[in-house]
Amino acid sequence: MVNAGDMNGSGNLMDFLDEPFPDVGTYEDFHTIDWLREKSRDTDRHRKITSKSKESIWEFIKSLLDAWSGWVVMLLIGLLAGTLAGVIDLAVDWMTDLKEGVCLSAFWYSHEQCCWTSNETTFDDRDKCPKWQKWSELLVNQSEGASAYILNYFLYIMWALSFAFLAVSLVRVFAPYACGSGIPEIKTILSGFIIRGYLGKWTLLIKTVTLVLVVSSGLSLGKEGPLVHVACCCGNFFSSLFSKYSKNEGKRREVLSAAAAAGVSVAFGAPIGGVLFSLEEVSYYFPLKTLWRSFFAALVAAFTLRSINPFGNSRLVLFYVEYHTPWYMAELFPFILLGVFGGLWGTLFIRCNIAWCRRRKTTRLGKYPVLEVIVVTAITAIIAYPNPYTRRSTSELISELFNDCGALESSQLCDYINDPNMTRPVDDIPDRPAGFGVYTAMWQLALALIFKIIITIFTFGMKIPSGLFIPSMAVGAMAGRMVGIGVEQLAYHHHDWIIFRNWCRPGADCVTPGLYAMVGAAACLGGVTRMTVSLVVIMFELTGGLEYIVPLMAAAVTSKWVADAFGKEGIYEAHIHLNGYPFLDAKDEFTHRTLATDVMRPRRGEPPLSVLTQDSMTVEDVETLIKETDYNGFPVVVSKDSERLIGFAQRRELILAIKNARQRQDGVVSNSIMYFTEDPPELPANSPHPLKLRRILNLSPFTVTDHTPMETVVDIFRKLGLRQCLVTRSGRLLGIITKKDVLRHMAQMANQDPESIMFN
What we know:
The chain is mainly alpha-helical.
């Protein structure tokens, strides 16, 4: 036998793995990252940089650059996300109007830009100007009559179908991951799951282009959710330029959390709401440092969007409102009723949409995504055109519903019967009886509401970029405006009732219907997404209505309570479960009295656990084990008899280590002994060189005993982001619990199909 001292001559060959080799520490597609290992690697990297910085000026400068790289990435994300959002807003504005007509002086002008640049436009006829022509005027020189209406109707449908077909074709051919809102997948990615290509350059490009097309087509969807995906694509691109983030998946996810905040910041013009949205809704790991950086990224993104000024009103948002009357305590009752409506709508939408998406996945319908998009677009355009409230873009509709009726408003919703003797300042118009226009608008809004509720169920989840924020807000805003007008007319005609007597005198401006629209929008958005704090902040940043924060809070809390009574899942969590992503939601509670031994593998009657021994297996044995199993890693024990645990080796790193050893080390053959100890084992003199793999061994894998309650195990998996946990008794290895085992067990305990927990 040869002892370790006689083998010193070959030590430099055996220990080549003490130097890092390519791809070590990376993960395969559709696998979960090891948060603890990523954290440990970043600590080691930081320690090394700090110690080197004392050696020379150049190393000190490099350490400063490393420290500032995070802020540079945030700056770049904010600049690109803000620019893309501004371009998308301008393009959507122009292409939406293109369905109805064209500007003769400059075809790239939207209707509003065309008329405001015209010298021949008066204020009363600001929507009619000679330079803007409808398609019927341009093609057959007719603006009125049945033939002009039919031609405009036909071209509206054709433009909508062209935009939708182009969008779904681009997604299908170039970037399949560009479909949907992206928020369920981003939540899953931020929890540690790897989906390669989901945040890639092609996805960024195609999602940006197709987002403009689908919103312009008039489909019942918004651009706000997809903008979060776009911003995260920007974050992924810039983090790949810095090794600090590109080589550490945990650090990369800190950047993506901040990018999500920047996405909401530019989607709604709500930087603080964006940070809270990232914290409350999408992020899994959100340290204080990420909070500051998210705030900075959201600030830069909002500043960039403000510089572009896409809405031409020097505001970050389209919905800016100014109400001139306070709200009164008696109005809390209708606000809470709107909250109840929002909760019920949220529950209805989630159940119907998930049922339809499940049908799409399990039937032949899913094989024809292009046809589905074309059919839904055709139905939407055909039904939407006759009703002025569904024909216009959803953002413009919400803006009109939020508006207070001033003296200069020309909307049907402001067609009240005026008192000829009224001599009041413009901003303080008293409550008035509704005119014919208001009643017409009411039944048109009722039809639009029913249409929006039904069509949104079938639109969300198609193979195109589709956000849910704006359609949900539109449903709530329409319901809220109708309730607001109802309360306003009740107060006008029955001001002597006890509920109105104290605060609504005749001739006073008591009720603001636009405020009810705002509260309804918040309630419906809360019912669908189950957001609370971030929702209220987004709404008051979105509208500038800081004084109305209490009605918004009341509606948001009520809608969440009502929706939670029917099921705890929001729309994003429901889609995560539908797609089978391995996501452990921190909001779920596990209260069952089971133990680790009930969940661990192997179970009774199953083959024994596949393990590696510390110094008795050959390269061929390990390669055979890897080939015959599909496990992500293998526990390493002293021997198969003792089963004393030494550590844990990842499958991918074993494969890479063996491959690199064969390429770089002479004498490594199939019957070479692999060892994970510090010193090589004693081997016969003529045996081939052994292979030392101690460097890739995790010497401190997380372990629990077989009697640990599953409640504790679930908590450990959630809070530490584990991939797997080993089960031991007195130091002997008994089994293993993976993240998927935990998810399957939780599904089983909730009487769901445990096999649904897999990436579909």
